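Our preliminary data section would be incomplete without showing what the modeling component actually yields. Below, a chain of 584 amino acids is followed by its predicted structure, encoded as tokens that our downstream tools consume directly.
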Amino acid sequence: MIFISLSETWSVMRHHIDFSENYVCKLGSEIQSMHFGASKKQLSLHTGVYFCKNENGPQTFCTVSENLDHSPGSIWAHLKPILRQVEQNHPNVDTLHIFSDGPTTQYRQKGNFLLLSQKPAQFGFTSAVWNFFESGHGKGTPDAVGGAIKRKADAKVKYGMDIQSAKDFVDATKESDIRVVIIPEEEIVQGLQEMTQMNPKPIKGTLKLHQVCWLGSHEVLFHRNHSCICQAPNECSNHKLSKHFTQSISENTLDLKQSIFDEYLGNLKNCKSFTELKEECKAIAGTMNDIEIQRNITLPYKDLKVDIPSVKILPDDLDDVRELYPCSVKADGNCLPSVGSVYAYGTIDRTSEMRVRIVTELALNEDLYLDRNFLQNGRCPANAKNWPKIYAQYSDLFIHGTRLTDDIVRDILRLEILKISVNYAFMGIWQIHALASVLKCPLYSVYPKLGAPCVRKDLQRVIMPRQLATTNTLPLYVLWTSTRNDMPNTHWIPNHFVAVLAKNDAYFSMTSKVPLESTCPESSEPSTKAVEPSTEEVELSTETMKPRPDTDEHGNATGFDYLDQHVIVSYDDKPYPGFCGRCK
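Predicted structure:
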């Protein structure tokens, strides 16, 4: 049974599930060898019933699949359309209670326990409890549902109908009061593939336990040997809960997380309207934990490399004491999610997760990203511009000459959110704002001293997040750049983003004594702050820490002495930062 409590109206839904015996496909007219043959096609039936105070009577259902697997991956594939219907009809549902029998090959096993910590949140639940009947329990409603639906199908066969597939079974039983749903083969296969990427930990004494509770964390479950419903899913004074970590620590954990976000991204892509997308984002938001960014990432770091073309255009007015280098990411439309992945995980590969987080942030906080005061945060001095209208004009969806009203600006933002829900779709300034809130850290939108000066005045700025983590007060850099090399400086336009990281001091052996004073980017003039000279070693000013306007193919300044300067050199056909010193 599944009991679902509604916190506001205290409606109770009781939903009893079980696998029925496989249905053997039949023909309306069979020869004797076919009738008694042992190789007939079978269909898997997952039956159940749920009750709700707000609905008239019990709601019975049967999910049908041509895949005969009954393992945890298949179980949740069968539950998906039913729980999705509950989510749509009862949006206030927050707790899921499940009752079933306890076969260790199906429901009562480590794989299903792990999925219990992952799947309910996708349907808007904040907690879930799975209870297992004792062995030798009597028949239940699912058994009656299975028998009734099979009799309905057999009756059609007697009247000459052939049932050779799941679709035939649904057609034969469509006149029944039982809701019959086909589970596509690909849904089962996807569930099985997810299980192969998981590394679930077994619960000691699995055969003895009768209740498993999930309270919102993807990593932790609680369990006990008695099914207590007086306080479930919370602690009970009579029956204590034991804690269990769902997965062993391994690289499979990251693979699982990535596959989950790939699935989320596919769900977002299939949304046909902004309203549908927003509802999907609400379901996804409850499954995501906050990101803790990595501030210790410097170049070189693991597989991260310097982006040589972007070195040449990195502006010299960032007022940062460190020597900064653009970090190369793939120019495939996922560049901004890759930048977020670099700052969150030190790799460029977690693009699906970052894209899902950016889309969810924008969809659920739409009004905030249309608020000129919120978009103004981070600019200094304050400039009372209508930033939503300005950002709308930088959108690819803006049609030149359109009179931008508030409604049109909102429509542009919504269409842009729908557009970026598709993988590899390019992002812009609104998405940088969302990324700052995803990372809970200020982002410095760095625009080169190329192209129209008014564009740089709008886009070169510090962006503040919706909620700032107390440890993330210094900004991270996002550089607008381009993969094209055929544009004159006056007509330059960006089509790519890269992260900007500091050099590794231990690797490059350079120090600087310039204090970090302000990140205000309003002035487009180069910084004139200098570094106090040292008698012990050569100190560089902030101007000499960046490539000069006239540079060679590696970004090295030309026309002056390289002695005691930091340069980019070519070694084994790869760029490496270097230092020109005197030979001893």
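Confidence is low (pLDDT under 50) at residues 5-12, 249-253, 506-552, 554-560. The first helix runs from residue 32 to 35. Preliminary results of this kind motivate Aim 1 of the renewal.
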